Amino acid sequence: MASQPSFRAVPHVRRPRLSDTITDQIENLIAGGKLKPGDRLPPERDLAQQLDVSRPSLREALLILESRGLLQARRGGGFSVTDVTAPTITDPLVHLLQRHPETVDDILELRHGLECVAAEFAALRATEADGKRLREIVSAMKRRRGEVDPLEDTDRDVDFHMAVAEASHNVALVHVMRGIFNLMRINMLRSREALCHQAENVALLDEQHAQIAKAIAARDPKAARAAANIHLSFVQASLREAVRSPGRKGADGMEGAAAPAASPARSRKRVNGDNAD
User: Fold this and answer.
1) CB-based burial label for 6 (10 Å; 0-12, 13-18, 19+)
2) How far is CA 230 from the centre of its chain?
């Protein structure tokens, strides 16, 4: 008599709720960097139409994402993407900087290392859209008219380096970089104020940014890393001087905007020679 085959119980697969499917899609867009911190979601009616779902299901999904800390409700309605990592990184560092200003060196070293890595990965992974964005920022930097505005230049500087980070297509790197720039913005502004006293310094910074963008466009990771290293060595020296040097008070009433004791423009040969990879 033939032996009877053994049968296993058929697993009962739970059909996912529509709100869970919506939640997964939006969460994947955030994790993949398609939705960035600060990005606003479309209005509820429009988003429901795009997803082809009911507004109650969409509303439930949005509330789930808000409870997870991935979205935040905006005044006047709607939701935007939360910066999920920057606060956990910057809050302890803000405390350290307030209590121990000398720790700015540690943050500068971290930024230096991260930006070299970001430039290298960007050269390997940048899309055409990423390259176009970098070229646009570099062109905007060179098109400035009249006197240099340190605040405007600082914003463009941050835009450029964040564009490089985003071109790396490493979501963790993007979040960490954004947190560092939020923390360092006042120090970057002081550095720009000090550097902008000499037109040669401004032109040098523009050229350094252009070299990074050029290496990324050429898909040369070694050259991109080297260009970022040269630029960050220069910036690191000027930021340290701006933070440490006593001098006239800035707009916030804090000291530190005095010109560096040794002009970065005059010391660039040392920076380029000693720190290039």
Assistant:
1) exposed
2) 19
Tell me the two tokens of residue 203.
Answer: 């032109």
HEC readout, the chain:
CCCCCCCCCCCCCCCCCHHHHHHHHHHHHHHCCCCCCCCECCCHHHHHHHHCCCHHHHHHHHHHHHHCCCEEECCCCCEEECCCCHHHHHHHHHHHHHHCHHHHHHHHHHHHHHHHHHHHHHHHHCCHHHHHHHHHHHHHHHCCCCCCCHHHHHHHHHHHHHHHHHHCCCHHHHHHHHHHHHHHHHHHHHHHHHHCCCHHHHHHHHHHHHHHHHHHHCCCHHHHHHHHHHHHHHHHHHHHHHHHCCCCECCCCCECCCCCCCCHHHHHHHHHHHHCC
Q: Which residues of 96-132 are buried (b: 16+ CB within 10 A; e: fewer)?
A: ebeeeeeebeebbeebbebbbbbbbbbbeebeeebbe
Residues 147-184 pLDDT 10s: 777 778 888 888 999 999 999 999 889 888 888 887 77
Q: At what angle do helices 199-217 and 221-244 cross, to 10 degrees?
A: 150
Burial 224-245 (b: 16+ CB within 10 A, else e): bbbbbbbbbbbbbbbbbbbbeb
Residue pair 95/101 in contact by the 8 Å Cβ criterion: no
- Give the list of residues 6+ apart from residue 19 with CB closer than 8 angstroms, or none: 57, 58, 60, 61, 64
When pLDDT is averaged across residues 251-265 and rounded to a whole number, the result is 37
